[in-house]
TrEMBL record:
<keyword id="KW-0460">Magnesium</keyword>
<feature type="binding site">
    <location>
        <position position="89"/>
    </location>
    <ligand>
        <name>Mg(2+)</name>
    </ligand>
</feature>
<keyword id="KW-0479">Metal-binding</keyword>
<keyword id="KW-0378">Hydrolase</keyword>
<dbReference type="Pfam" id="PF00459">
    <property type="entry name" value="Inositol_P"/>
</dbReference>
<dbReference type="GO" id="GO:0050427">
    <property type="term" value="P:3'-phosphoadenosine 5'-phosphosulfate metabolic process"/>
</dbReference>
<dbReference type="InterPro" id="IPR020583">
    <property type="entry name" value="Inositol_monoP_metal-BS"/>
</dbReference>
<feature type="binding site">
    <location>
        <position position="199"/>
    </location>
    <ligand>
        <name>Mg(2+)</name>
    </ligand>
</feature>
<dbReference type="GO" id="GO:0008441">
    <property type="term" value="F:3'(2'),5'-bisphosphate nucleotidase activity"/>
</dbReference>
<protein>
    <recommendedName>
        <fullName>3'(2'),5-bisphosphonucleoside 3'(2')-phosphohydrolase</fullName>
    </recommendedName>
</protein>
<dbReference type="GO" id="GO:0046872">
    <property type="term" value="F:metal ion binding"/>
</dbReference>
<dbReference type="InterPro" id="IPR050725">
    <property type="entry name" value="CysQ/Inositol_MonoPase"/>
</dbReference>
<feature type="binding site">
    <location>
        <position position="88"/>
    </location>
    <ligand>
        <name>Mg(2+)</name>
    </ligand>
</feature>
<dbReference type="GO" id="GO:0000103">
    <property type="term" value="P:sulfate assimilation"/>
</dbReference>
<feature type="binding site">
    <location>
        <position position="68"/>
    </location>
    <ligand>
        <name>Mg(2+)</name>
    </ligand>
</feature>
<dbReference type="InterPro" id="IPR000760">
    <property type="entry name" value="Inositol_monophosphatase-like"/>
</dbReference>
<feature type="binding site">
    <location>
        <position position="86"/>
    </location>
    <ligand>
        <name>Mg(2+)</name>
    </ligand>
</feature>
Amino acid sequence: MTVNDAAAPPTDAQLASDLAVAAGRVLLELRDGGLTGKDLKDAGDRTSHEFLMAALAQHRPEDAVLSEEGADDAARLSADRVWIVDPLDGTREYSEPGRSDWAVHVALWQAGDLVAGAVARPAAGVVHSTDDPKVVSPTEHERVRLAVSRSRPPEFVTELADVLDAELVPMGSAGVKAMSVVTGESDAYVHAGGQYEWDSAAPVSVARAAGLHTSRLDGSPLLYNQQNPWLPDLIIARPGVLAQIRRGLDAVAANR
């Protein structure tokens, strides 16, 4: 399977979007094929990963890849360009009939920072990309809305919501929660339980392109293509609520 049949080769941002959408189509076809439960989860992770690896080998053969479903190759640490992908973000939601809150993440890290990315929501027919970034409008809600896991809201975010008198907005995968800030369904996604680089690279690149704030909880930069791909925490927030979020974080820390 190929992506983008136009004569001119796609830009990195176009390729990220094309691959996320195409992998999503593969996942939708697989989901309609009769598998259920763990079998569907495993097949989705594997099939999307294999598709993305083959497509990147075709379109960017010189680049390194860091994928959730692939063996980590230390050669990426000395590479100039590294694609960071999550072939299926939200396997639980993907395996539940009718759910659309799962995603495909494709991002490119180059020379020290994220430079392109896309988050596709195949079952919703939506892709968010740095190729065509959405301009975020000011929030019109009086209460801060925090995106939170629908199945296991962490104690930390519950405490933060109490301090801020914020509204919790439950939803599925990490990418979906991050994109809810872009679309205006929430005002911030604050995560303190740790994630891997592939969980946030594409969402962070899209959020930045849309004008959102992205950082660690302490305000330090989010770093990618690190030897250990574990990221302890992050904030994706609309600029208008950032000061309020920071005061809330300080209050939570003081209460612990």
